[in-house]
Automatic annotation (TrEMBL):
<dbReference type="InterPro" id="IPR050346">
    <property type="entry name" value="FMO-like"/>
</dbReference>
<keyword id="KW-1133">Transmembrane helix</keyword>
<dbReference type="Pfam" id="PF00743">
    <property type="entry name" value="FMO-like"/>
</dbReference>
<dbReference type="GO" id="GO:0004499">
    <property type="term" value="F:N,N-dimethylaniline monooxygenase activity"/>
</dbReference>
<comment type="function">
    <text>Broad spectrum monooxygenase that catalyzes the oxygenation of a wide variety of nitrogen- and sulfur-containing compounds including xenobiotics. Catalyzes the S-oxygenation of hypotaurine to produce taurine, an organic osmolyte involved in cell volume regulation as well as a variety of cytoprotective and developmental processes.</text>
</comment>
<keyword id="KW-0560">Oxidoreductase</keyword>
<keyword id="KW-0503">Monooxygenase</keyword>
<keyword id="KW-0274">FAD</keyword>
<protein>
    <recommendedName>
        <fullName>Flavin-containing monooxygenase</fullName>
        <ecNumber>1.-.-.-</ecNumber>
    </recommendedName>
</protein>
<dbReference type="GO" id="GO:0050660">
    <property type="term" value="F:flavin adenine dinucleotide binding"/>
</dbReference>
<keyword id="KW-0521">NADP</keyword>
<keyword id="KW-0472">Membrane</keyword>
<dbReference type="InterPro" id="IPR000960">
    <property type="entry name" value="Flavin_mOase"/>
</dbReference>
<dbReference type="GO" id="GO:0050661">
    <property type="term" value="F:NADP binding"/>
</dbReference>
<dbReference type="GO" id="GO:0005789">
    <property type="term" value="C:endoplasmic reticulum membrane"/>
</dbReference>
<keyword id="KW-0256">Endoplasmic reticulum</keyword>
<dbReference type="InterPro" id="IPR020946">
    <property type="entry name" value="Flavin_mOase-like"/>
</dbReference>
Amino acid sequence: MKKTVAVIGAGSSGISAIKVCKEEGIDVVCYEKTNRIGGLWNYAGGQNEGATVMKSTVINSHKEMSAFSDFPPPSHFPNYMHNSQVQQYFLMYAENFELLPHIRYNHDVVRVSKSSDYEETGRWKVVFKILPDEKEFEQIFDGFMLCNGHHACPRMPQFPGQSDFLGPVIHSQSLKVPDDFKDLNVLVVGIGNSGVDAAVELSNVAKQLRLYLQRIQTAVFPFMKESILNSTNNELELYKLTFSPDLQHPTLAVIGLVQVFGSHFPIEEAQSRWFAQLMNGKVVLPDRKEMKKEISRRRKAMDVRFVDSARHTVEVDFIHFMDDITREYGATPNMRKLLLTDPKLFFACLVGPGLPYQYRLNGPHSWPKARETILNFPSRVEMPDDNCCCQME
């Protein structure tokens, strides 16, 4: 009998989860609270429409490093895509692999719990509402994947004296367009991805804008529109903006665009591939004691590797993580074999960027075009004209 899986959320992680379930012959249903796919990347207009990017947001990782492992973005797309192009890429992916029929739009999952026969079957009960109605329905599944991301609930700190401030106080999640802040004096708290992104946007309309770093209590300074990292006057030391690249990713604010080194779509896909293999018994979990031991080891490693911050709870080193998880289902590149049989591809994988396509060279559901896609990487990078305006209206 076929396994059944519920996928909660139709963002980048959710649609890749649907796809890998189909590959493994698993019956899959995806519950999406809104009426569209894309999740965080689906900006649809409005100032406070929830957990989406801003109107002007450009993806903070290179399109080739952020691609799904068997579906590269169109060559003519900018190397750093505007959010509307990311959304278009998701739709192309979903249509190409016929994922859309598996999505139930306007379905709000209320709770997931163990079924009454869980001890015998290991199945789960998913309770959901079909919006806008409040009536609840339920369905039983063999497993579920929670793909609603970690950006839905904003973290809003409280500062002494904040209640005395009479102006508006908002979280960056609510900032979609800067229009409401025209000719105002604005303070942005934080210099992470969202803080710098917001500061760049607001600096175009605000009367005066200051950027405040919580971790360095005295560092309050007028925001500079061009990247401080590009300066030759040692502003990093002057403004005490020192950081270790090994502990946190640098944020670059460059002429209205914000780019941060990293990628996430391939990691989400790799996790889903592992889960699908698990559901079909092709990957076996260790015993509970061993799993707790491994979780503890990884947490300690993260404590050493990353800054003690809530935003680093989901950080991983891309290559190490991908090799680790794909090794469990046989999709890690066999570098020794490549050295002996395909030196050209070997050196492309060894010294080139960590392209996700290398995880489709072998293993379950390998991709015949993986090799040529890796070798043709330079031509796809050179094709788009990144000097043109990236924002699509």
